[in-house]
Amino acid sequence: MTRVLVIGGLDSSGGAGILRDVATVTRLGGQATVAVTAVTAQTDQAGFACDPVSPEVVQAQIRAAGPVDAVKIGMLCNGAITRMVAATLAEPRVTTRTETRAEAVQAGLKEGPPKDHAQTLTKTCVPADLPIVLDPVLMSSSGMVLLDADGQDALLTTLLPLCSVVTPNLPELAALSPLSTGETAGVGHLLRHGAGAVLVKGGHGSDRVQVEDRLYKRDDTPLRFAAPRIDKTLRGTGCHLASAMAVSLARGRGLSQAVREAREDLLLRFRTA
Ligand code: PLP
């Protein structure tokens, strides 16, 4: 079973945040564990309240998740939580899990351990091996702040170097690179801070006919993914895309293939919503 740890905020309306992340991982046949960073009260139109979870409890949730195949990060709320998430993911974690007979057989052990014997496996999870997808959400469409200014600094300096890919939309890209103008400069800023790759989501662009996302990998010309613009507003699309990418990366797909698969699944949800 593909295990994905989703780190983010609880949107009480269920439209976005970790409820959307868990729904996406589940619909793709994966298993989600969560680390909640904040509890919010929201509707599709307005945000009423936001209570951050203490950084220590966020850390405990991440540690409790045990071994996972990928991580998806969304709302981080503030600097203290962002720094704690980065520090915890960066820990050279040695995690253990109990392997059942069935899992051992599946993993290629012909006989498997004796029936009543649970074998403890030790697996070292170093961040370099672990796909981490960061959706740098700063504000909800209803105007609720999802990451404060200190959090944005912490995201750039502590979290980006751990991330395989970061998925800003155009306003997020501009906000995270205030001194750089233009997409290429903004992307360069995020890559210089250590992100493995940047997927710029073009949904806020001016083209009314089609939407184009662009994947920038290091030393590569950007890959373009275009699709007709769908005249429908659906919340949580960024959460969905990043979570679906995490599932694909967890299953060993390359980055471009992960983007392709995630976009296909998002389109399917649009069609059936
Ligand atoms: N609320 C939470 C907790 C979120 O994590 C997000 C996005 O990640 C949002 C709200 C924003 O969703 P939308 O932009 O679809 O309103």
From TrEMBL:
<dbReference type="InterPro" id="IPR004399">
    <property type="entry name" value="HMP/HMP-P_kinase_dom"/>
</dbReference>
<protein>
    <recommendedName>
        <fullName>hydroxymethylpyrimidine kinase</fullName>
        <ecNumber>2.7.1.49</ecNumber>
    </recommendedName>
</protein>
<dbReference type="InterPro" id="IPR029056">
    <property type="entry name" value="Ribokinase-like"/>
</dbReference>
<dbReference type="Pfam" id="PF08543">
    <property type="entry name" value="Phos_pyr_kin"/>
</dbReference>
<dbReference type="GO" id="GO:0008972">
    <property type="term" value="F:phosphomethylpyrimidine kinase activity"/>
</dbReference>
<dbReference type="InterPro" id="IPR013749">
    <property type="entry name" value="PM/HMP-P_kinase-1"/>
</dbReference>
<dbReference type="GO" id="GO:0008902">
    <property type="term" value="F:hydroxymethylpyrimidine kinase activity"/>
</dbReference>
<feature type="domain" description="Pyridoxamine kinase/Phosphomethylpyrimidine kinase">
    <location>
        <begin position="11"/>
        <end position="94"/>
    </location>
</feature>
<dbReference type="GO" id="GO:0009229">
    <property type="term" value="P:thiamine diphosphate biosynthetic process"/>
</dbReference>
<dbReference type="GO" id="GO:0005829">
    <property type="term" value="C:cytosol"/>
</dbReference>
<comment type="pathway">
    <text>Cofactor biosynthesis; thiamine diphosphate biosynthesis.</text>
</comment>
<keyword id="KW-0808">Transferase</keyword>
<feature type="domain" description="Pyridoxamine kinase/Phosphomethylpyrimidine kinase">
    <location>
        <begin position="120"/>
        <end position="264"/>
    </location>
</feature>
<dbReference type="GO" id="GO:0009228">
    <property type="term" value="P:thiamine biosynthetic process"/>
</dbReference>
<keyword id="KW-0418">Kinase</keyword>
